[in-house]
Every structure is written in structure tokens, then in C-alpha cells.
Write a structure and sequence with these properties.
Helix content is 43%, strand content 13%. β16 (460-465), α16 (469-480) and β17 form a beta-alpha-beta unit. The chain starts with 29 loop residues before the first helix and ends with a helix. By secondary structure, the protein is an alpha/beta fold.
Length: 525
């Protein structure tokens, strides 16, 4: 029986091997999945044929196109088709309708899925990592920042996906992908901090006050800022959700008094948490799930996010329809107290690299004195698949003398827990969004310099939860820096072949998580 689609880019892929039916586990239809493959085909064609001819306009098209193919971003076949048209029109503008001096390419994305398993594995790592890079580059771009080296790499990597079948070439390209993502995360860190200030610690309530409100989810800080400006003094409160929580750490965002708190937990709980919610929800990037009938009329999308039969906010960021919807719905009649997964009523964020480095002397002295025995980086994407309670149990059972650095939506498994402090330093330190892995890298490198050792010699262990393609980009970055001993879970990616896995185990000592107790025993020696 012929597959209606093939997709195995996320952690919850069907049967741990790939989604092949009329829809993926994420909810996208086979039509959308196949169109997204066509979009990658068009991007590879553009990258090979238009080599040396691209500019800012082309770069922007490529970033958005790749971003749209990330899990839980674009569910609308018409939207994806428009993006294909944009890429093909750009190729024609640069190269002509059929023949280009650079040559043409007979490539179809579907060929990757049926290729030699090791070549398929490496090309998948590159492609999915590239999607993560594109997301970060897109966020930097809307703030007015770009890096020509990152943009140039995107074409190089897409070209390799289309033209190379050499194992060693592709293996080297995976490490280049990691290095390109490091540059991109640094770029986005610069964009965010120069625009909104250096994040500082902030304890965020989870109480929803009575009256009209709007929920903002995703990752786009510029969308949030525009909405805050347009709702100021209008009696409408704004609440973050999911990966928008770290916005409360930025001085230029937290100055708005109607940015009240955080609604709910991680993205995979939205269908329950948004059920019959008397407020509109703005999805600014990925993390969108198929809405229930009880709230689809109050779903608004922006940027690359799209879902059929929902209102999309244009590039002008005019949120008037959203604001009017909030007024009509009216919000809750009385204050409503929400809690985290573990019953906590507040969550704390804002422990950026700058903040942590400001107390680096305390951390260093704590390690030397034995007050801090180990540092765990526990973070990454959250998800709905069973087994993710591992991360809650891991943090809950971490010895008292240990610090927990965390980032991305995986932190919702434990960020409402109070596990105390060490010498005034909270034991759970939320570094920020997934792209803020750059901050965690900076902290690790600074500590290694202070102790005159390599990162691998630090009392530091990394436990990475993954779900989608940005986590792949972060993993490749860590590997490209030579970081060893990473624990990955809850399951291994379906797109990693046995031979590629053996390479990762041999060269980087990558391990699949087992149980918190067993893994912690190994980490602590």
C-alpha cells in the first residue's frame, strides 16, 4: 500500500518510524506534508541554480520557507502553496524560467526518504537542523539583524542535500550546521538584548485576573511588543504562554504593567488549557496544535504560522481584530488561579547568561568549596509522548548541592517546583527560550575558562529533551563544540540510522536516557 505521506522529523512520529497515513501525529494533513516536501524541493533547486546571485530578498524568502516546514507551524495548504510560488518566482527572477547558467537539478525531497539509510540520516540531520537555524534567523531578521555567513550557509547546506551522496562530506556538513546555528543563536541573542535589554530574574504569577485578556504563545518578541503597545490603557491584560514566558525577563517588555503573568504550561497541553477560554490566543510561531471547536474562533496567527479558517495578522502587525475579540469575550468574571504541572502558583524566569555571569564568582567559589557539587543542564522541547515525567523526576531527585540550568518549554516539567537555593542562588535557573541555549553555552565556556579546563571536564551534565527541529539544531551545535556525554530523550530520533548513532556514541558519548536514578549515578560518578 502506497504511503500518503512520509514525515519523521519530530519525536512523536507514528510508531517511532514515520507518519505515512492521511495525517501526521501533529495534525497536519498528508496534502500539507507533501506540499512541504515540494517546498524543500523548490528551495534546493533555488540554492543550486541561483548560486552567487542571491541577496536580502532571496534570503528572507528562504528563511520563511524553511520556518514554515517546522513541526506545528503551518497547517494551511494554501499558505504553503503560496510559499512554493514565492520560491519558484524568485528562482525564475534570478535564473530565468528553465535554464540557468549554474545548471539545473533533478532533485525531489521524497528521494531522501528512500535513500541509503545512512545518507538519509545525515541529510535529515542537516535539513532539520537547517530548519531550526531558519527559525532563529527569521526572529533576528524581523528585529533588523542578519548574518551573511549564516545566510550563505543555508544555500550551501541545501545544495549539499540536493547534490551530495558522500557520507564523509555530509557528516562534516552536520558539524557545519551546528556551527552555523551557534552563530545564529549569537545573532538572535544580540538582537533580543539590544532591543529589549538584558533579561533579569522575575517571578511570574499564574493567576489570571478578571476582565478581558489575550494569551500570546510562540517565540516572537516583536509581536508581543506590538500587541503590548496597542493594548496599553485599554483595560486588556496580556498573558504569556509556553515559550513566551521568558519575555517577562526583558526590561523593555516587563515595563508594561498589563503584561500580567503566564497562562498555563507547555504547548502540548493547550487543547485542554484553551478549551472554552474566554479570550483570544495569538500564535506567533510554532507550537500550534489542531484547535478544538470550543476555541478555534478565538485563534489568531501571525508570521509563518497558519491554520485554515483562522484569522491571520499581516506584516503590519495590526492587532485590532484580536483586541476587539478580547473585548467581546470579556475574560473571566472572577480571578482564576492556574498552577504549573506540579501545583506551583508562580514560575521564575530571566536568568540570562549575563545574570548568571554576574554571580559567577559565587558559583565558582561554591564549586571550589563543595557547596555546589554538580550543575545539570536539563532543557529542550516538551511533548505529549509518555516518558517525559523523567525530567520532572530527575530535577526533583537531584541532590541538594546541585544547580539546574534550564531552557525552552521542557522546563515546564519542573519550573513551578521550589527546590531551594544554594547561597542565595536559586537551584533552578531558567535561561530562557530554546535559542537561549547560546546563553547556556556562554556560561559553560566561561566556567571552563575560570577552572582552566575543557567543558567536558566541568562538573556539568547535559540532559536534552527533544521534540522538533530547533532541538536538532541545538544538539548539533553542542556536538560541533565537542561537548560529550549528552543524555538525549525521551526517545532517539527516528531519522538517526544505526551507523550514525554508533558514530555519535563513539565520538561524542551520546546516550539515551534510562531512569533518573541510573543516569544521575553515572553523571555524578
Amino acid at each position: 500500500m502506497k504511503n500518503e505521506m512520509f514525515c519523521f522529523q519530530c519525536e512523536q512520529t507514528a510508531k517511532g518510524t514515520g507518519c505515512t497515513g492521511s495525517a501526521g501525529v501533529c495534525g497536519k494533513s498528508s496534502d500539507v506534508a507533501n506540499l512541504q516536501d515540494d517546498l524543500i524541493t523548490a528551495l534546493v533547486d533555488l540554492s543550486i541554480r541561483a548560486k552567487g546571485k542571491t541577496g536580502d530578498r532571496t534570503d528572507d524568502i528562504v528563511k520563511e520557507a524553511l520556518f514554515r516546514t517546522i513541526t506545528n507551524v503551518d497547517f494551511d495548504p494554501l499558505s504553503v502553496k503560496r510559499q512554493i510560488d514565492a520560491v519558484e518566482e524568485e528562482t525564475e527572477r534570478l535564473c530565468g524560467s528553465n535554464v540557468c547558467g549554474c545548471g539545473n537539478v533533478a532533485f525531489r525531497t521524497e528521494k531522501i526518504w528512500t535513500d541509503d539509510e545512512d545518507i538519509r540520516s545525515l541529510k535529515s540531520l542537516i535539513l532539520f537542523g537547517l530548519k531550526g537555524i531558519a527559525a532563529y534567523a527569521y526572529h533576528a531578521k524581523v528585529l533588523g539583524y542578519k548574518d551573511p555567513e549564516v545566510d550563505s550557509f543555508m544555500y550551501k547546506a541545501l545544495g549539499a542535500i540536493g547534490e551530495s551522496s558522500d557520507f564523509n562530506e555530509l557528516l562534516a556538513m552536520t558539524m557545519e550546521t551546528g556551527q552555523a546555528n551557534l552563530k545564529c543563536m549569537a545573532l538572535l541573542d544580540k538582537a533580543n538584548t539590544e532591543k529589549y535589554g538584558v533579561p533579569a530574574p522575575n517571578t511570574v504569577p499564574m493567576k489570571i485576573e478578571k476582565g478581558p485578556f489575550i494569551i500570546v504563545t510562540g517565540h516572537d518578541l516583536l509581536d508581543l511588543e506590538a500587541l503590548l503597545k496597542q493594548t496599553e490603557d485599554k483595560g486588556i491584560n496580556i498573558y504569556t504562554h509556553g515559550e513566551m514566558l521568558p519575555a517577562h525577563g526583558y526590561p523593555e517588555l516587563r515595563k508594561y504593567s498589563h503584561l500580567k503573568g503566564n497562562f498555563g504550561t507547555a504547548w502540548q497541553n493547550q487543547r485542554d488549557e484553551f478549551d472554552d477560554v474566554p479570550a483570544p490566543i495569538l500564535f506567533t510561531t510554532n507550537c500550534l496544535m489542531k484547535p478544538k471547536a470550543s476555541y478555534i474562533d478565538r485563534v489568531f496567527t501571525a508570521g509563518p504560522v497558519s491554520y485554515p479558517d483562522t484569522v491571520h495578522i499581516g506584516e503590519d502587525r495590526d492587532f485590532s481584530p484580536l483586541i476587539e475579540k478580547a473585548k467581546v469575550l470579556g475574560g473571566y468574571k472572577e480571578d482564576r488561579q492556574m498552577t504549573g504541572i506540579n501545583g506551583g502558583k508562580t514560575v521564575t524566569t530571566g536568568f540570562s547568561a549575563g545574570t548568571i555571569m554576574s554571580v559567577a564568582d559565587k558559583v565558582i567559589e561554591g564549586v571550589k568549596a563543595g557547596a555546589i557539587s554538580h550543575i545539570f543542564l536539563v532543557g529542550g522541547c516538551d511533548g505529549a509522548k509518555p516518558g517525559r515525567n523523567y525530567f520532572t523526576d530527575f530535577v526533583r531527585n537531584a541532590p541538594n548541592g546541585t544547580l539546574i540550568l534550564t531552557l525552552a518549554c521542557g522546563k515546564y516539567r519542573f519550573n513551578d517546583m521550589n527546590i531551594g537555593d544554594i547561597g542565595g542562588i536559586p537551584r533552578i535557573l531558567d535561561v530562557g527560550q530554546c535559542n537561549d541555549a547560546y546563553g547556556a553555552v556562554k556560561v559553560a565556556l566561561a566556567l571552563a575558562e575560570a577552572f582552566e579546563c575543557s567543558v567536558n571536564d566541568l562538573p556539568l551534565s547535559i540532559v536534552l529533551s527533544w521534540y522538533e527541529q530547533k532541538a536538532v539544531a541545538v544538539l548539533l551545535t553542542l556536538l560541533s563544540l565537542g561537548v560529550k556525554g549528552i543524555y538525549l530523550g525521551p526517545t532517539l530520533p527516528a531519522f538517526v540510522s544505526p551507523n550514525v548513532l554508533n558514530f555519535l556514541v563513539k565520538e561524542f558519548e551520546v546516550s539515551l536516557i534510562s531512569t533518573p536514578a541510573e543516569d544521575m549515578k553515572k553523571m555524578l560518578g
